[in-house]
Amino acid sequence: MASTERRVEAIFHAEVASMNEVKAVTQLILIRHGRTILNAAGRFRGRQDVPLDGVGRTEADALARRLKMSFNITQLLTSPLRRAVETADAIAKTFGLATVVEPRLNDLDYGNWQGLTPEEAAAAYPRQYREWERTPEKVLLPGGGCLAWQIDTALRLVQEVVVDYPGETIGLVTHQVVCQGLICALLGIPLRQFRRITHAPAAFSVFETHPSGWTIVALNDTCHLGPFAGQSRSMDYWGGQRASSTAQVP
User: Smaller CB count within 10 Å for the chain: N or C?
Assistant: First the structure.
Protein backbone atom coordinates (compact mmCIF):
# COMPACT_ATOMS: atom_id res chain seq x y z
CA MET A 1 0.00 0.00 0.00
CA ALA A 2 3.04 2.29 0.09
CA SER A 3 2.56 3.12 -3.59
CA THR A 4 -1.03 4.17 -2.93
CA GLU A 5 0.04 6.43 -0.07
CA ARG A 6 2.72 8.03 -2.26
CA ARG A 7 0.16 8.61 -5.00
CA VAL A 8 -2.25 10.34 -2.62
CA GLU A 9 0.59 12.54 -1.36
CA ALA A 10 1.51 13.38 -4.95
CA ILE A 11 -2.07 14.44 -5.63
CA PHE A 12 -1.92 16.75 -2.61
CA HIS A 13 1.32 18.40 -3.74
CA ALA A 14 0.16 18.77 -7.34
CA GLU A 15 -3.08 20.42 -6.31
CA VAL A 16 -1.36 22.75 -3.83
CA ALA A 17 0.91 23.94 -6.63
CA SER A 18 -1.98 24.54 -8.98
CA MET A 19 -3.99 26.28 -6.27
CA ASN A 20 -1.18 28.74 -5.74
CA GLU A 21 -1.80 29.82 -9.32
CA VAL A 22 -5.58 29.77 -9.62
CA LYS A 23 -6.53 30.51 -5.98
CA ALA A 24 -9.50 28.15 -6.33
CA VAL A 25 -10.79 24.96 -4.78
CA THR A 26 -11.23 21.89 -6.95
CA GLN A 27 -14.27 19.72 -6.21
CA LEU A 28 -14.28 15.97 -6.85
CA ILE A 29 -17.69 14.25 -6.88
CA LEU A 30 -17.64 10.46 -6.63
CA ILE A 31 -20.89 9.14 -8.08
CA ARG A 32 -22.15 5.57 -7.98
CA HIS A 33 -24.42 4.32 -10.74
CA GLY A 34 -28.10 3.52 -10.17
CA ARG A 35 -29.57 0.13 -9.35
CA THR A 36 -29.41 -2.96 -11.59
CA ILE A 37 -31.06 -6.35 -11.35
CA LEU A 38 -27.83 -7.78 -9.93
CA ASN A 39 -27.75 -5.12 -7.20
CA ALA A 40 -31.34 -5.95 -6.30
CA ALA A 41 -30.48 -9.66 -6.12
CA GLY A 42 -27.35 -9.13 -4.02
CA ARG A 43 -25.01 -10.66 -6.61
CA PHE A 44 -21.46 -9.77 -7.56
CA ARG A 45 -21.50 -7.46 -10.60
CA GLY A 46 -17.94 -6.61 -11.57
CA ARG A 47 -17.39 -6.43 -15.31
CA GLN A 48 -20.78 -7.93 -16.21
CA ASP A 49 -22.29 -5.26 -18.43
CA VAL A 50 -25.83 -5.07 -17.07
CA PRO A 51 -28.01 -1.97 -17.64
CA LEU A 52 -29.92 0.00 -15.04
CA ASP A 53 -33.27 -1.48 -14.07
CA GLY A 54 -36.45 0.62 -13.84
CA VAL A 55 -35.64 1.84 -10.34
CA GLY A 56 -32.07 2.57 -11.39
CA ARG A 57 -33.16 4.77 -14.27
CA THR A 58 -35.47 6.73 -11.98
CA GLU A 59 -32.63 7.04 -9.46
CA ALA A 60 -30.30 8.37 -12.15
CA ASP A 61 -32.79 11.07 -13.14
CA ALA A 62 -33.29 12.10 -9.50
CA LEU A 63 -29.52 12.14 -8.99
CA ALA A 64 -29.02 14.36 -12.04
CA ARG A 65 -31.59 16.87 -10.82
CA ARG A 66 -30.02 16.95 -7.35
CA LEU A 67 -26.53 17.52 -8.70
CA LYS A 68 -27.79 20.32 -10.95
CA MET A 69 -29.33 22.05 -7.92
CA SER A 70 -26.16 21.91 -5.85
CA PHE A 71 -23.11 21.90 -8.13
CA ASN A 72 -21.65 23.28 -11.33
CA ILE A 73 -20.09 20.16 -12.80
CA THR A 74 -17.74 21.11 -15.63
CA GLN A 75 -16.12 17.73 -16.38
CA LEU A 76 -17.88 14.35 -16.34
CA LEU A 77 -16.07 11.04 -16.67
CA THR A 78 -17.61 7.59 -16.46
CA SER A 79 -16.78 3.91 -16.27
CA PRO A 80 -17.33 2.18 -19.62
CA LEU A 81 -19.90 -0.23 -18.19
CA ARG A 82 -23.46 0.37 -19.36
CA ARG A 83 -24.95 0.97 -15.90
CA ALA A 84 -22.45 3.76 -15.29
CA VAL A 85 -22.77 5.24 -18.77
CA GLU A 86 -26.55 5.38 -18.47
CA THR A 87 -26.22 7.17 -15.12
CA ALA A 88 -23.64 9.56 -16.57
CA ASP A 89 -25.80 10.27 -19.61
CA ALA A 90 -28.66 11.40 -17.35
CA ILE A 91 -26.28 13.78 -15.57
CA ALA A 92 -24.67 14.99 -18.81
CA LYS A 93 -28.05 15.81 -20.32
CA THR A 94 -28.96 17.91 -17.28
CA PHE A 95 -25.69 19.87 -17.39
CA GLY A 96 -25.33 20.05 -21.16
CA LEU A 97 -22.02 18.19 -21.01
CA ALA A 98 -20.36 15.51 -23.07
CA THR A 99 -19.69 12.24 -21.25
CA VAL A 100 -16.09 11.03 -21.35
CA VAL A 101 -15.69 7.26 -21.04
CA GLU A 102 -12.70 6.45 -18.84
CA PRO A 103 -11.64 2.77 -18.48
CA ARG A 104 -9.81 3.49 -15.22
CA LEU A 105 -13.20 4.00 -13.55
CA ASN A 106 -14.22 0.43 -14.37
CA ASP A 107 -15.50 -1.90 -11.67
CA LEU A 108 -13.24 -4.44 -10.00
CA ASP A 109 -13.05 -7.62 -12.05
CA TYR A 110 -14.63 -10.28 -9.82
CA GLY A 111 -13.80 -12.99 -12.35
CA ASN A 112 -15.49 -16.29 -11.56
CA TRP A 113 -17.60 -14.70 -8.82
CA GLN A 114 -19.50 -12.41 -11.19
CA GLY A 115 -23.19 -13.21 -11.12
CA LEU A 116 -22.87 -15.28 -7.94
CA THR A 117 -24.27 -14.55 -4.51
CA PRO A 118 -21.79 -14.32 -1.62
CA GLU A 119 -22.97 -17.73 -0.41
CA GLU A 120 -22.35 -19.28 -3.82
CA ALA A 121 -18.90 -17.71 -4.09
CA ALA A 122 -17.96 -18.85 -0.57
CA ALA A 123 -19.10 -22.40 -1.30
CA ALA A 124 -17.26 -22.63 -4.62
CA TYR A 125 -14.06 -20.84 -3.52
CA PRO A 126 -13.86 -21.17 0.29
CA ARG A 127 -10.16 -20.30 0.67
CA GLN A 128 -10.25 -17.27 -1.60
CA TYR A 129 -13.47 -16.04 -0.04
CA ARG A 130 -11.95 -16.23 3.46
CA GLU A 131 -9.00 -14.22 2.16
CA TRP A 132 -11.43 -11.69 0.61
CA GLU A 133 -13.06 -11.22 4.00
CA ARG A 134 -9.81 -10.95 5.95
CA THR A 135 -7.38 -9.19 3.60
CA PRO A 136 -9.42 -7.91 0.64
CA GLU A 137 -6.66 -5.59 -0.52
CA LYS A 138 -4.28 -8.50 -1.14
CA VAL A 139 -6.33 -11.31 -2.63
CA LEU A 140 -6.27 -12.03 -6.36
CA LEU A 141 -9.85 -12.97 -7.14
CA PRO A 142 -10.31 -16.28 -9.03
CA GLY A 143 -10.20 -15.45 -12.72
CA GLY A 144 -10.35 -11.74 -11.86
CA GLY A 145 -8.41 -8.81 -10.51
CA CYS A 146 -7.07 -7.30 -7.30
CA LEU A 147 -8.70 -4.55 -5.24
CA ALA A 148 -5.45 -2.69 -4.53
CA TRP A 149 -4.57 -2.60 -8.24
CA GLN A 150 -8.00 -1.29 -9.17
CA ILE A 151 -7.94 1.52 -6.60
CA ASP A 152 -4.38 2.52 -7.50
CA THR A 153 -5.49 2.75 -11.14
CA ALA A 154 -8.39 5.01 -10.18
CA LEU A 155 -6.07 7.16 -8.06
CA ARG A 156 -3.86 7.75 -11.09
CA LEU A 157 -6.89 9.18 -12.85
CA VAL A 158 -7.75 11.40 -9.88
CA GLN A 159 -4.22 12.74 -9.91
CA GLU A 160 -4.52 13.63 -13.58
CA VAL A 161 -7.92 15.34 -13.49
CA VAL A 162 -7.07 17.41 -10.43
CA VAL A 163 -3.99 18.74 -12.20
CA ASP A 164 -5.75 19.18 -15.56
CA TYR A 165 -8.87 20.94 -14.23
CA PRO A 166 -7.85 23.08 -11.24
CA GLY A 167 -10.67 25.08 -9.70
CA GLU A 168 -13.35 23.05 -11.50
CA THR A 169 -15.97 20.55 -10.33
CA ILE A 170 -15.29 17.07 -11.67
CA GLY A 171 -17.83 14.24 -11.62
CA LEU A 172 -16.61 10.65 -11.69
CA VAL A 173 -19.32 8.04 -12.31
CA THR A 174 -18.13 4.65 -11.14
CA HIS A 175 -18.92 1.65 -8.93
CA GLN A 176 -19.34 0.91 -5.25
CA VAL A 177 -15.96 -0.63 -4.54
CA VAL A 178 -14.17 2.12 -6.48
CA CYS A 179 -16.03 4.82 -4.52
CA GLN A 180 -15.22 3.06 -1.25
CA GLY A 181 -11.57 2.54 -2.14
CA LEU A 182 -11.03 6.11 -3.31
CA ILE A 183 -12.67 7.47 -0.16
CA CYS A 184 -10.30 5.34 1.92
CA ALA A 185 -7.30 6.60 -0.04
CA LEU A 186 -8.26 10.28 0.08
CA LEU A 187 -8.95 10.16 3.82
CA GLY A 188 -5.93 8.02 4.73
CA ILE A 189 -8.01 5.01 5.79
CA PRO A 190 -6.44 1.56 5.22
CA LEU A 191 -7.99 -0.10 2.17
CA ARG A 192 -8.67 -3.19 4.24
CA GLN A 193 -11.42 -1.22 5.97
CA PHE A 194 -13.29 -0.26 2.79
CA ARG A 195 -16.38 -2.18 3.92
CA ARG A 196 -16.87 0.31 6.75
CA ILE A 197 -17.87 2.90 4.14
CA THR A 198 -21.36 2.75 2.67
CA HIS A 199 -21.96 4.04 -0.84
CA ALA A 200 -25.48 3.30 -2.05
CA PRO A 201 -26.64 3.12 -5.67
CA ALA A 202 -27.05 6.63 -7.14
CA ALA A 203 -25.35 8.17 -4.11
CA PHE A 204 -22.56 10.73 -4.34
CA SER A 205 -19.70 11.91 -2.14
CA VAL A 206 -17.91 15.24 -2.45
CA PHE A 207 -14.28 16.12 -1.75
CA GLU A 208 -12.48 19.44 -2.00
CA THR A 209 -8.77 20.10 -2.30
CA HIS A 210 -7.11 22.50 0.12
CA PRO A 211 -3.45 23.25 0.88
CA SER A 212 -3.64 20.83 3.83
CA GLY A 213 -5.07 18.03 1.69
CA TRP A 214 -8.49 16.61 0.92
CA THR A 215 -11.59 17.72 2.82
CA ILE A 216 -14.77 15.66 2.71
CA VAL A 217 -17.91 17.74 2.14
CA ALA A 218 -20.54 15.02 1.67
CA LEU A 219 -20.52 11.26 2.11
CA ASN A 220 -23.00 8.79 0.59
CA ASP A 221 -25.56 11.53 -0.04
CA THR A 222 -28.92 9.93 -0.94
CA CYS A 223 -31.33 12.73 0.00
CA HIS A 224 -32.62 12.80 -3.57
CA LEU A 225 -33.67 9.13 -3.26
CA GLY A 226 -36.24 9.68 -0.52
CA PRO A 227 -39.22 8.57 -2.67
CA PHE A 228 -37.62 5.13 -3.06
CA ALA A 229 -37.26 4.46 0.66
CA GLY A 230 -40.13 1.98 0.64
CA GLN A 231 -38.87 0.02 -2.36
CA SER A 232 -36.56 -2.94 -2.41
CA ARG A 233 -33.05 -1.48 -2.55
CA SER A 234 -29.81 -3.18 -3.44
CA MET A 235 -28.37 -5.68 -1.01
CA ASP A 236 -24.66 -5.34 -1.48
CA TYR A 237 -22.52 -8.29 -0.64
CA TRP A 238 -20.29 -6.47 1.84
CA GLY A 239 -23.14 -4.71 3.60
CA GLY A 240 -25.16 -6.20 6.40
CA GLN A 241 -25.45 -9.67 4.89
CA ARG A 242 -22.35 -11.81 4.74
CA ALA A 243 -21.68 -15.30 3.45
CA SER A 244 -20.13 -16.37 6.73
CA SER A 245 -20.93 -15.80 10.38
CA THR A 246 -17.53 -14.33 11.16
CA ALA A 247 -17.26 -10.76 12.44
CA GLN A 248 -16.17 -8.18 9.89
CA VAL A 249 -12.40 -8.04 9.89
CA PRO A 250 -10.96 -4.52 9.94
Answer: C
Indicate the residue type of 232: S
Q: Which helix (H) or strand (E) holds 148?
A: helix 147-164
- Span 101-150, pLDDT tens digits: 999 999 999 999 999 999 999 999 999 999 999 999 999 999 999 999 99
3-state helix, strand, coil in the chain (%, to 5): 50, 15, 35
Helices and strands counted in the chain (H then E): 8, 6
End-to-end Cα separation, the chain, in angstroms:
15
How far, CA to CA in Å, does 94 sit from each of 61, 83, 98?
A: 9, 17, 11
The CATH class for the domain spanning 2-41+52-108+148-225 reads alpha beta
User: What's the pLDDT tens digit per position in 12-25?
Assistant: 555 555 444 445 79
Residues 6+ apart with CB under 8 A from 162: 11, 14, 15, 18, 26, 28, 170, 209
Cβ count near 216 (within 10 Å): 12
Q: How far apart are CA 167 and CA 189, in angstroms?
A: 25
pTM: 0.84
Question: What is the C-alpha to C-alpha distance for residues 116 and 137, in angstroms, rounded to an integer?
Answer: 20
